[in-house]
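Hi all, posting the design record for the shared folder.

TITLE: backbone redesign
STEP: 1 of 1
STRUCTURE INPUT:
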């Protein structure tokens, strides 16, 4: 997916989170958004997703040289973020099955196989409410990374993961995300070391 910002900005009341941002996110390229805590990285990610309106300038989304209306952007992206909860009453299998009704998963793997790939095979039929915080993060990453979507948005993707989880995260990116536009919001270089471009939100204050 191609996303084009032209003199774009976002503010809350009188406070500008970012402004005068002109930037093009190109198909199949990975990007990192960095900045101090509270600087607005997550806000920028939500504006990119179309779920939050910008305050100035323009944004356009394109897929295969065809423009996408802002109200339809959600159908072409997947996101994992700390502020997005999973349905804890569901099991891992039920959660991914439910998710698949709205956005197809990558072909070639069953849901049981996906759960195994992220190391949750022993908990596949356990309600998510009984998962540890690290296990919940793994199922969040599974629903985002294995969605058959051209745009992948990751906000602090390794939250609550141990070193084994970090290694898993990078394997998933390297194996299953080829050809996707990936945008990672993080201050931890180990979460975005694979990104080809780094954007500091502080450059747009």
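Okay, here is what came back for every position:
SEQUENCE:
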């Amino acid at each position: 997916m191609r996303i084009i910002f032209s003199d774009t900005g976002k503010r809350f009341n009188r406070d500008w989170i970012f402004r005068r941002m002109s930037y093009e996110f190109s198909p199949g390229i990975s990007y990192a958004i960095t900045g101090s805590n509270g600087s607005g990285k997550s806000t920028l990610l939500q504006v990119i997703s179309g779920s939050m309106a910008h305050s100035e300038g323009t944004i356009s989304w394109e897929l295969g040289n065809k423009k996408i209306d802002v109200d339809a952007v959600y159908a072409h992206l997947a996101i994992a973020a700390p502020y997005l909860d999973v349905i804890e009453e569901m099991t891992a299998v039920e959660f991914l099955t439910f998710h698949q009704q709205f956005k197809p998963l990558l072909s070639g793997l069953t849901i049981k196989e996906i759960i195994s790939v992220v190391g949750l095979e022993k908990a596949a039929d356990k309600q998510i409410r009984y998962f540890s915080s690290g296990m919940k993060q793994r199922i969040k990453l599974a629903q985002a990374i294995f969605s058959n979507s051209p745009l992948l948005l990751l906000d602090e993707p390794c939250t609550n993961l141990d070193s084994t989880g970090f290694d898993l995260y990078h394997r998933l990116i390297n194996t299953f995300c080829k050809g996707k536009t990936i945008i990672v919001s993080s201050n931890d270089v180990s979460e975005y070391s694979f990104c080809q471009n780094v954007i500091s939100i502080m450059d747009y204050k």
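COMMENT: The chain has a mean pLDDT of 96.
Let me know if anyone wants the other runs.
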